Amino acid sequence: MAGRRRFSLGVIILAAGRSSRMGRPKMLLPWGRTTVLGHLLALWSRLGAHQVAVVCASADAAIDTELNRLRFSNKNRITNPDPGQGMFSSVQCAARWRGWNPGLTHWAIVLGDQPHLQRATLATLLDAAAQHPPPPNIPGKSASRPGAGARAIRCCCQRPLLKSSPGARMKLSRNSCARWPPTWSWWS
């Protein structure tokens, strides 16, 4: 992944869903020699993520057991107290979380329903993101908080959240995640 200038990736793996249509948690389904969750953790580690965090439901013993089996650190687990509010509530929890390394410049929001995406495909997305440096920090309303302000979260999503023009990137301010509806802006 040559040509990167100040590129530091944080990964948010969304694992708080109930997978009600599947009948059992998607993240715990077998994938190769591990589970979908184990595969995703290993994949993003190999892709060079500087920090990986997993958003889990507060009372999900099965996911917690799997994370323990995978020796995934407790310090990178984010609790969603009310995942019944939908997937975006997990994104909001991740945006509010104070455990992010301060040097991160980009985030990838990772869903568990597409573990078949190839490493090369994701590496290409990361290379493209690395070619576009993040905007400067803009002081926000809660500038006393570490990492506060409108530092952009660039999403290298595994599937598009919204259809837009080719090459468009989503910008979501950290502060906008604390209120509904969020503030979205698009640029190409």
Description:
With 188 residues, the protein is α/β, with parallel strands linked by helices. It has a single domain, classed as Spore Coat Polysaccharide Biosynthesis Protein SpsA, Chain A (Alpha-Beta Complex). It is 22% helix and 21% strand. It has helices at 36-46, 61-69, 87-96, 119-130, and strands spanning 9-15, 30-31, 34-35, 51-57, 77-80, 106-110, 152-154, 169-173, 184-187. The strands form 3 sheets. A 4-stranded parallel β-sheet has the order 5-4-1-6. The longest helix is centred in the middle third of the chain and has 12 residues, at 119-130. The protein is globular, with a radius of gyration of 16 Å.
What is the secondary structure topology, with strand pairs?
Blueprint: E1 9-15, E2 30-31, E3 34-35, H1 36-46, E4 51-57, H2 61-69, E5 77-80, H3 87-96, E6 106-110, H4 119-130, E7 152-154, E8 169-173, E9 184-187
Parallel strand pairs: 1-4, 1-6, 4-5
Antiparallel strand pairs: 2-3, 7-8, 8-9
Quick one: CATH class?
A: Alpha Beta
Largest sheet: spatial strand order: 5-4-1-6
| Main beta sheet | 4 strands, parallel
Percent range of helical residues:
10-25%
How many helix segments?
A: 4
Radius of gyration equals 16 Å
CATH topology: Spore Coat Polysaccharide Biosynthesis Protein SpsA, Chain A
In whole angstroms, the N-to-C terminal distance is 22 Å
Structural class: alpha/beta
CATH superfamily label: Spore Coat Polysaccharide Biosynthesis Protein SpsA, Chain A
The fraction of residues in strands falls at 15-25%
Low-confidence stretches: 138-188
Average residue pLDDT: 76
**Strand-and-helix sequence, N→C?**
EEEHEHEHEHEEE
Tally of individual domains: 1
Number of DSSP strands?
Answer: 9
